[in-house]
Design brief:
By secondary structure, the protein is an alpha+beta fold. It has a domain at 93-277. It has helices spanning 2-27, 100-111, 154-176, 230-243; strands at 115-118, 122-123, 130-131, 134-141, 144-153, 180-187, 208-216, 221-223, 249-251, 263-266, 276-277. Helix 3 packs antiparallel against helix 4. The protein is flat.
Length: 278
């Protein structure tokens, strides 16, 4: 009995000793210095994922300064007043005695039957206008009148009188079977430059005549314009074509806006006696 009791106590002591060891293991576990390796499916060790390294941010470049500083937009200077181009005729002044060519011109006008009056000299030193021996035309002759205030130099008056009596009158008779009774003028001597130019107009020397209308003996009035009636247009076209030659410049409807309602006729001196008809 004693031997059995001793064996029982020895077994109990061994069991208690094992329990103490297990309790010590639980309270004081041994730390594994190597972290556990993860495994994939099937227990194979998993290769750790490689985390991509972000690219290095390039260094920011300083903006290069402009070669020249920006300038504000240029404001154009106000246009200066244009001066008139010099014309030798601007210096013409009357002499104590009328020159022979002026006297002869007046004799030819009288022979044409034209009526006129002498006018005092015109001269504007500032602008440059000048007519040393002007006349005021009252009629072209052969009972063909002209509206009042037709001041011209004698040479222009003679050219106009010949043109009206020798060319326009026959055209009127041929086209309408009536005589030319009068001419309506829009401008004769006017002291001014050309429109939109720095050159003096031929009007400034009494060397131009603007014709706005023709009145016939039967009362018909033919007006210069951009769209006249058919018969009037044929008459005006014939007159306009015939004017190129007796006059150095011929302008009218279609030339420009300034001549839409009249014929401009002048004796502007041109190189080699040329003409400008438009």
């Amino acid at each position: 009995m004693e031997n059995g009791t001793e064996k029982s106590e020895q077994g109990k002591r061994r069991a208690d000793s094992n329990d103490d060891f297990l309790n010590q293991e639980k309270s004081h576990p041994k730390w594994d210095t190597h972290p556990p390796r993860s495994t994939g499916a099937g227990g194979e060790p998993r290769t750790p994922a490689v985390v991509p390294t972000p690219p290095e941010k390039p260094a920011e470049l300083e903006p290069e300064p402009p070669e020249t500083a920006p300038q504000p937009p240029e404001i154009p200077a106000p246009p200066s007043e244009e001066k008139m181009l010099p014309d030798p005729r601007s210096a013409d002044l009357p002499a104590d005695k009328m020159p022979a060519e002026e006297t002869a011109c007046r004799e030819r006008l009288k022979a044409l039957g034209a009526e006129f009056e002498e006018h005092k000299a015109e001269h504007d030193a500032e602008i440059g206008c000048s007519i040393p021996y002007p006349i005021t035309l009252k009629s072209f002759g052969r009972s063909i009148g002209i509206s009042s205030g037709t001041e011209l130099n004698c040479q222009m008056a003679e050219a106009a009188a010949r043109f009206v009596t020798e060319i326009v009158q026959p055209i009127a008779r041929a086209k309408f079977g009536a005589d030319l009774k009068s001419i309506g003028q829009a401008s004769a001597f006017v002291c001014r430059p050309r429109h939109g130019a720095s050159k003096l107009s031929e009007h400034a020397f009494g060397n131009a005549l603007d014709i706005a209308s023709f009145t016939l003996s039967d009362g018909r009035k033919i007006e210069v314009g951009p769209a006249p009636p058919e018969n009037d247009a044929k008459f005006l076209d014939a007159v306009r074509k015939a004017a190129c030659g007796p006059f150095k410049t011929v302008l009218g409807p279609g030339s420009d806006a300034d001549h839409a309602l009249h014929f401009h006729l002048d004796l502007e001196p041109r190189r080699h006696g040329g003409t400008f008809c438009q």
